[in-house]
Design brief:
The complex is a heterodimer.
Chain A (H helix, E strand, L loop, with lengths): L2 H7 L13 H13 L17 E6 L2 E11 L3 E2 L2 E2 L2 H11 L17 E7 L10 E10 L2 E8 L6 H11 L3 E6 L2 H15 L10 E5 H9 L8 H9 L12 H11 L2 H29 L9 H13 L3 H13 L5 H14 L3 H12 L4 H17 L3 H22 L3 H16 L1
Parallel strand pairs in A: 5-8, 8-9
Antiparallel strand pairs in A: 1-2, 2-7, 3-4, 5-6, 6-7
Chain B lengths: L6 H9 L4 E7 L6 E2 L7 H9 L5 E2 H12 L3 E4 L7 H14 L4 E5 L3 H18 L5 E3 L6 H10 L2 E4 L1 H8 L7 H5 L1 E6 L7 H20 L5 E6 L5 H9 L4 E3 L9 E6 L3 E3 L4 E2 L2 H14 L4 E4 L3 H19 L4 E4 L5 H13 L4 E4 L14 E5 L5 H8 L9 E6 L4 H8 L1 H6 L12 H14 L2 E2 L3 E2 L2 E2 L1 H9 L3 E4 L2 E4 L18 E6 L7 E7 H7 L5 E4 L2 E9 L4 E6 L4 E21 L3 E21 L5 E6 L5 E12 L1 H7 L1 H22 L7 E6 L9 E6 L7 H7 L1 H14 L22 H13 L6 E3 L1
Parallel strand pairs in B: 4-9, 4-10, 5-7, 5-8, 6-7, 8-9, 11-18, 14-16, 14-17, 15-16, 17-18, 24-28
Antiparallel strand pairs in B: 1-11, 2-3, 12-13, 19-23, 20-21, 22-23, 24-25, 26-27, 27-28, 29-30, 29-35, 30-31, 30-32, 32-34, 33-34
Classes of the chains: A alpha+beta, B alpha/beta.
Chain lengths: 423, 764
């Protein structure tokens, strides 16, 4: 029995994830296999002209290059692109080493980068078919895209992309650390003999920043949601990124750029909104007057500062939150108290803890324990220490019944007994 | 206090036991050695000497020489013959000479890989060179993975990991693939059937990636004794191999005892329970301080025997001195047990065949098997656990009442003279091949004219392009699909799509307790079926066929369910044929259409039917290979229609058991179906077909060895002491009112078949 017959007979047993080709599609496909002889002249190429796409060649291969300019006064959502220059200036003047700081870098050096791929996950076979980035140059924002017209043209795409951006040390992405960049490295490995080496790169991953600020308040931190909820960007007629692989597969069969137009547009907007997102994040972190950031955001930013060991900045932010009347006020107060305690500002810390200790919540227990420690070890006021220990014990007992957590309770018991003796 | 018996005394006592039906002594062997090769690195020599090794066994020496010459080889090594040196020596030598060299070790299981790593690292520490050996498996922490990829000299992994985590991410392993000198495949004999066919294709992909990065590694395999090590290793690696068989390791004398429990019910031929006898024998061994391992076939049995033994010897030795060892234990527990055995804290182990593979557990003196473990190779593997070095050892196999066990203990010469089983794989099974071509295309594009390790696959590539999985451009085929193909392909399961079994007994916490191939699920997981999982009864509440999920709940009932499967077989093409005047044996391609029709509820105690119901599931179609035995009309005229039907059913019953033992596969992998009027010929026929789409060579094997299988079947039926057939041979005796003896008729059919043998063989 011939292999062809066998294959079609056993088709039902195979996991073929390909979409079932309609007859029309089949035919189109075959038409193309006949056409591909003239590799130099891309099929249906004149259709790229309205999309501003032009071919860049590398030996037999080519990539489609698009460049679109946006003026600095272009308004996207709640932000003007010119504000990028402003925040870079602000970072320069700010006294901080925050991970998002661009101190020592010109606005022109920032590369806002995003890719489109044929699948999810990080395997070798997941092809990047579009490398897009934008950056500031000569007082305009230039979006540049390198598109893969067919899988055999990969070397051309990476070659021209790498020729174009020689400095990748200030890459700004959305989840690029975990996804886009490792995938670029993977695919680059496959064509490494034909293209320049990947330069050293540095990274600002805005997804991490977005998660820090909004993971509790937004349903998810997908870029489109952040755009809508925070940046005031409402995309019209947007092609969802999840459709990109299928549209690309269709494009490969039809070679009609119109099919992929939506994906190119999507990517163009993605890199532009990275600028907007970067501006808005920076302004919040730098506590600029002209953004109305919420207390929750301030609280999260304070925690971030604390994490990166900038306690003064953190304390400033916490204090602002403490003055307000929002739900995370007690958290901020407690955090501020702990921060002050670490700075050995014990009286100020005590004030903070007392502010929390009078409450009836889980934070109050921690505050009471902290007070007990302060009174026992620093102020040597054992009566007060005992008072707060017992208070903590009572509350913990209530909570423990629900949480089944015994350790804290045992620790408290030990503390109370010790204090009773000391008294 | 009673004086303890030594093993010698114990053996003497056992000699007199009347239930011992056969006693076989295997002579010991002195060590045969060669001096260290003069090229061997001084540091390695020193490290060996530190560990008390001053010479190499002959097979280790040969292995080293072949490796240095650049040959690929397979070393046949019984348990405890120092097989690890066969590969560790050349690999370590290579890395000592050139530290940029890399080696990849493949073990069939994670546990084995872990075990080998600790042994390897002890050796490396003794050498004192900067050599890094790492395991890379599902347990490897993400932060360590990067180190392994970049800096691991020796990467120890399993085929599943290679398939789904290493090869699809080869760009992260550049330094390994550029410098790969050796690929070590241990426990070669475990790569057979569907699993082996998958692994062979994983190796093809590995070779393809290596070639891409410019390396051409040497293959070193080690294997337990099987009939065809050369064939298997060449098929698995696609490489010309040399086989090393000059085992020079010393062996102590071994006493191999077949123990048949006494008959307690003469008319029904029921013997005393194996469990009871095993417990008695083992507790006596243990209480005499003889280190013993007990093998049982199922996890449940392990637990039962274990708890009894612990009770018996608790006072004397302490509960902790006897431990269980089975697949379900956590790695840490297993490590602890292995450690305890090695340092002597643990005196006895009760194990499933999880320990069959070469995990080193130190020296045991006696081995007790609860029943025949299913294959000759398994018996030898398990027996190899006792007496690993120079001392005398005792192996007791306690027989069950089942026909296979009885057959073996009553015809011991069959066992001791039989060639060990063949291990077969079929890497070119179309389904498996296509699966791995997808993975391979995902890893690297195919160029026009590229072969897949020698196989021309252009037709398949065109096919995959038509199916829109690949894209063809400039004489190359590129992966052009959203999915990650390796994730959907499991090396260990026969069917591609499995039904997941979900236990919803605990409403708040549904748990996946297992999976089953769709073909078997039709009869075992239909609505209302009673499904047994590790001895617990579950009722299927709902089988969601579209989603391939079976929802079950724990129950306690006194019946089981038995479903009818209506099977239709269509012969598509006859490839081979052996003809005789009244019957013939043929092999070819078939389509199997199966539909579950009804099920019966059968009372556990009395086997009476207490209820039934319909099954509504769509028909399943399977394209596969089959061997079939076909009788001419004259046989029916001679015997009678109804009688022939009973004889066919009876014969199928036995054939299934014997054939699956013979081709070394699981009972479920080879199905047997009798048909009074086969669709293609209208003649009475028995079909034996591969359960896996496209076939994995089982029925082909049956065809090749049909004479031996039929002869064995005949002996088997004759050896059964029943009169007219019993559940342990041809099934329940004929329920018809005809007076003919079905057992005799089955034998008549067999005699006719056995005449086929030499006549008129033609091949297409």
């Amino acid at each position: 029995m011939s292999l062809k017959n066998k294959l079609s007979r056993m088709k039902g047993h195979m996991q073929l994830d390909g979409r079932k080709a309609s007859e029309q599609e089949q035919k189109n496909y075959e038409d193309h296999s006949n056409e591909k002889s003239d590799a130099k002249l891309p099929a249906k190429f004149n259709q790229w002209i309205p999309l501003k796409g032009k071919p860049l060649f590398l030996e037999e291969q080519y990539t489609i290059f698009r460049e679109i300019h946006y003026p600095l006064d272009f308004q996207l959502g709640n932000t003007q692109l010119s504000e990028l220059k402003e925040v870079v200036r602000l970072w320069e003047g700010a006294d901080t080493d925050h991970p998002l700081s661009t101190k020592g870098i010109d606005a022109e050096q920032l590369i806002f980068f995003d890719t489109e791929t044929t699948g999810l996950g990080g395997g070798t076979g997941n092809t990047i078919f579009l490398l897009g980035y934008c950056h500031l140059e000569d007082d305009v924002v230039k979006v540049k895209q390198f598109f893969l017209p067919g899988p055999a043209d990969e070397a051309a795409m990476y070659f021209h992309f790498l020729q174009d951006v020689n400095d990748l040390s200030n890459l700004v992405t959305y989840n690029g650390k975990a996804f886009d960049w490792p995938q670029v490295k993977t695919r680059h490995t496959l064509v490494r003999d034909k293209v320049p080496l990947l330069p050293k790169f540095g990274h600002y991953d805005l997804l991490h920043a977005a998660r820090r600020l909004w993971k509790d308040t937004l349903p998810s931190c997908r870029l489109t949601i952040v755009e809508k909820e925070i940046l005031g960007i409402e995309r019209v007629d947007d092609t969802p990124g999840s459709l990109a692989p299928l549209l690309y597969f269709d494009f490969l069969k039809e070679k009609d750029p119109k099919i992929i137009e939506g994906v190119l547009k999507h990517n163009e907007y993605d890199v532009l909104s990275l600028i907007v997102l970067y501006v808005q994040l920076s302004k919040r972190i730098l506590n600029c007057e002209d953004v109305s950031s919420t207390m929750k955001e301030k609280y999260e930013i304070a925690r971030w500062y604390e994490k990166v060991k900038e306690p003064m900045k953190a304390a400033e932010m916490y204090e602002e939150v403490v003055k307000s009347n929002v739900s995370c006020r007690d958290e901020a107060l407690l955090a501020l108290g702990l921060l002050l305690k670490k700075q050995k500002q014990r009286d100020e810390a005590m004030d903070c803890f007392e502010g929390v200790a009078i409450k009836e919540n889980a934070l109050a227990i921690t505050a009471c324990i902290e007070l007990a420690k302060l009174f026992e070890h620093q102020f040597k006021d054992f009566d007060k220490a005992l008072y707060y220990s017992e208070r903590a014990y009572e509350q913990q007992k209530k909570a423990a019944r629900l949480l089944r957590e015994k350790k804290t309770l045992d620790d408290l018991k030990a503390r109370i007994e010790r204090l009773r003796k000391k008294r | 206090m009673l004086k303890k018996l030594s093993l010698k005394r114990y053996i003497k006592e056992l000699c007199e036991d009347e239930n011992v039906v056969y006693w076989h002594e295997l002579e010991g062997q002195r060590a045969k050695t060669v001096p260290f090769p003069y090229t061997l690195d001084e540091r390695i020599k020193k490290a060996l000497e530190q560990r008390g090794i001053h010479e190499l066994y002959t097979h280790q020496g040969t292995a080293y020489d072949l490796a240095v010459k650049g040959s690929h080889f397979t070393a046949i090594t019984p348990t405890a013959s120092g097989k690890t040196l066969c590969y560790n020596l050349p690999v370590l030598q290579q890395i000592c000479e050139d530290p940029s060299s890399r080696a990849l070790y493949i073990f069939p299981t994670k546990a084995l890989a872990q075990d080998q790593r600790s042994e390897l690292n002890e050796m490396i520490d003794a050498i004192g060179a900067d050599i890094k050996g790492f395991t890379y498996d599902g347990d490897t922490a993400p932060n360590i993975r990067q180190v392994v990829r970049k800096a691991g000299h020796i990467v120890i992994t399993n085929p599943d990991m290679l398939h789904s985590a290493i090869l699809p991410h080869h760009t992260k392993w550049v330094s390994l693939f550029e410098n790969l000198k050796y690929v070590v495949i241990d426990e070669l004999h475990t790569y057979r059937g569907v699993f082996g066919s998958h692994v062979a294709n994983v190796i093809r992909r590995l070779k393809r990636i290596c070639a891409y990065y410019g390396s051409h590694p040497q293959f070193i395999c080690t294997s337990a004794t099987i009939a065809n090590p050369l064939e298997l290793s060449e098929n698995l690696t696609g490489t010309k191999m040399t086989v090393i068989e000059n085992n020079g390791a010393p062996r102590g004398r071994k006493h191999f005892v077949f123990y048949n429990p006494p008959i307690i019910n003469k008319p029904l031929q029921i013997r005393k329970s194996t469990n009871v006898e095993v417990k008695r024998l083992a507790s006596k061994l243990l209480s005499n301080d003889i280190k013993t391992i007990v093998f049982a076939r199922s996890r449940v049995r392990v637990e039962i025997i274990l708890s009894h033994l612990q009770e018996i010897v608790a006072k004397q030795l302490g509960r902790k001195s006897i431990r269980g060892y089975r697949g379900g234990y956590l790695p840490k527990q297993r490590r602890e047990i292995e450690q305890g055995l090695r340092n002597g804290d643990i005196k006895g182990v009760v194990s499933t065949n999880a320990l069959e593979l070469g995990v080193d557990i130190g020296q045991l003196q006696a081995c007790v098997m609860t029943g025949y473990p299913g294959s000759i190779a398994s018996v030898w593997q398990q027996a190899g656990r006792a007496g690993r070095r120079h001392d005398e050892a005792l192996i007791i196999m306690v027989a069950n009442s089942t026909p296979i066990d009885q057959f073996i203990v009553n015809q011991p010469e069959y066992f001791f003279e039989a060639t060990p089983e063949h291990a077969r794989i079929n890497p070119d099974n179309l389904i498996i091949l296509v699966d791995h071509l997808k993975c391979a295309a995902y890893e690297l594009p195919f160029k026009q004219g590229d072969l897949f390790d020698g196989v021309d696959v252009e037709d398949v590539l065109h096919f995959l392009t038509e199916q829109q999985v690949l894209h063809h451009q400039q004489n190359k085929w590129f992966w052009m699909n959203e999915s990650f193909p390796a994730h959907n392909i499991s090396l260990r399961s026969a069917a591609q799509e499995n039904v997941i079994i979900i236990d919803q007994t605990d409403v708040a916490n549904h748990q996946v307790i297992g999976e089953m191939d769709t073909f078997s699920a039709m009869t075992l997981l239909h609505d209302e079926a009673i499904y047994l999982h590790e001895g617990t009864q579950f009722q299927v509440e709902k089988l969601d066929w579209d989603e391939k999920k079976a929802f079950v709940r724990e129950v306690d009932v006194d019946y089981f369910t038995d479903a009818n499967l209506a099977v239709q077989l269509k012969v598509l093409e006859v490839d081979k044929q052996k003809k005789h005047s009244s019957c013939s044996v043929e092999f070819g391609d078939v389509t199997v259409n199966a539909m579950a029709t009804i099920f019966k509820k059968i009372k556990l105690t009395s086997f009476e039917t207490i209820g039934s119901g319909p099954i509504h599931l769509p028909e399943q179609e399977l394209h596969t290979n089959a061997t079939w035995i076909q009788f001419e009309e004259c046989v029916q005229d001679e015997i009678g229609k109804e009688e022939l039907e009973h004889a066919l059913i009876g014969l199928s019953h036995v054939l299934q058991a014997v054939a699956s033992v013979y081709v070394m596969c699981d009972r479920n992998d080879l199905h047997v179906t009798p048909q009074m009027k086969a669709v293609h010929s209208g003649k009475p026929t028995i079909f034996l077909y591969d359960r896996y789409p496209g076939g994995v060579g089982l029925s082909d094997d049956v065809y090749k060895h049909i004479n031996e299988i039929l002869t064995r079947t005949k002996q088997y039926i004759e050896a059964c002491s029943c009169e007219e057939g019993c559940p342990s041979c041809i099934g329940v005796g004929s329920s018809s009112n005809s007076s003919a003896n079905t057992k005799q008729l089955s034998l008549t059919l067999l005699k006719k078949l056995l005449e086929v043998g030499d006549t008129n063989v033609f091949k297409k």
